[in-house]
Specification:
Layout (H helix, E strand, L loop, with lengths): L28 E9 L13 E2 L12 E2 L4 H25 L4 E4 L1 H6 L1 H9 L3 E4 L12 H19 L5 E2 L8 H8 L4 E2 L9 E4 L4 E4 L20 H18 L5 E8 H4 L2 H15 L4 E4 L1 H11 L7
Parallel strand pairs: 1-4, 1-10, 1-11, 4-5, 6-7
Antiparallel strand pairs: 2-3, 8-9
Length: 307
């Protein structure tokens, strides 16, 4: 099997001697929140797909609808864009906290007000593909254009190109296409560490800031998962406390993944509010954007590509 420099197996990782991150202010923990903005970009007849995405855990027993619209599924996604997103943004605004938005290009086209609000608040807009689909079956040329188009949409919305990227359901080409395009500080299509790390192909270097599917509100709709706000808050709190304790000697990074169609509901938003307050009351925590982590890592832990 040929070695793929952009997708190595990292079974050893940093091993017994991870680097000291030197987070700003001597923080024990870099805490980073991601809001996934996907609503409207899912599989849909309205988006030209042959079927509509109707399978959501809230709609038990349903499957994709071929040849027609899935009105109930659309409505659940619409709630995230129309209501949930604004509730989550208010929670962060009230506490003067930053986040990173993984923004799907089509969602931004359909709801430009959301992108404008994120940019005006100083949140980071990172690329999340042009469609909320599985890119493993997408032609390389189409994926390349999707990346370019999404970067243009984000720049038009925020006044600057994206610093980072997360596709979520990547193709074998995704990271190579991002590296070839250039201009990005990082991507987050990995779940294999609690610190950033570099990849290189002998000529080019690329920074990876791993993401999470564990400290993630997808747990509300998975089984077994978190059946209510108390369970999700406990999940985040326990992870935070352990990482904070370990951070006395080995500081790390904690990511929290959010979706407006999940955490935007009142019965779940309370968990996010409680955790924001819990983390905010603790000293030695750097709450930041992923772009901030990338810029910090590049300054303090640079890797020069081989000539």
């Amino acid at each position: 099997m040929m070695r793929d420099p952009w997708h190595p197996r990292r079974l050893r990782g940093y091993g017994r001697h991870p680097p000291q991150p030197a987070w700003p202010g001597g923080a024990r923990l870099a805490l980073q929140f991601v809001l996934n903005v996907e609503e409207g970009a899912e599989r849909s007849i309205l988006n030209g797909d042959p079927e509509s995405e109707s399978y959501l855990p809230e709609l038990a027993g349903t499957r994709p609808v071929t040849g027609g619209r899935a009105y109930s599924a659309e409505s659940l996604y619409d709630y995230g864009a129309a209501v949930g997103l604004w509730r989550i943004l208010r929670l962060f605004e009230a506490r003067h906290l930053p986040l990173t938005a993984f923004v799907v290009g089509r969602a931004l086209e359909l709801n430009p007000e959301a992108g404008a609000a994120l940019a005006e608040a100083g949140h980071e807009l990172a690329g999340h593909g042009y469609r909320w689909i599985d890119y493993r079956t997408v032609d390389e040329a189409v994926e390349r254009e999707h990346i370019a188009h999404t970067c243009r949409l984000i720049e038009d919305c925020s006044g600057r190109p994206p610093a980072g990227w997360y596709t979520g359901r990547t193709s074998p080409n995704t990271r190579r296409l991002l590296v070839e395009r250039g201009g990005l500080l990082y991507d987050s299509d990995a779940y294999d560490d609690e610190l950033p790390y570099w990849l290189a192909d002998g000529r080019r270097a690329h920074l990876v800031i791993p993401y999470t599917l564990i400290h993630n509100d997808i747990r509300y709709v998975l089984s077994p998962g978190c059946g209510n706000a108390d369970a999700f808050f406990a999940l985040l709190r326990d992870a935070f406390e352990l990482l904070w304790q370990e951070g006395e000697s080995a500081p790390r990074m904690m990511s929290v993944g959010l979706h407006a169609r999940f955490s935007g509901h009142p019965a779940r938003a309370v968990a996010l509010a409680r955790f924001l307050d819990h983390a905010g009351d603790k000293g030695g925590v750097w709450i930041c954007r992923r772009q901030d982590i990338a810029e910090h890592w590049r300054r303090h832990h640079p890797l020069q590509p081989a000539v």
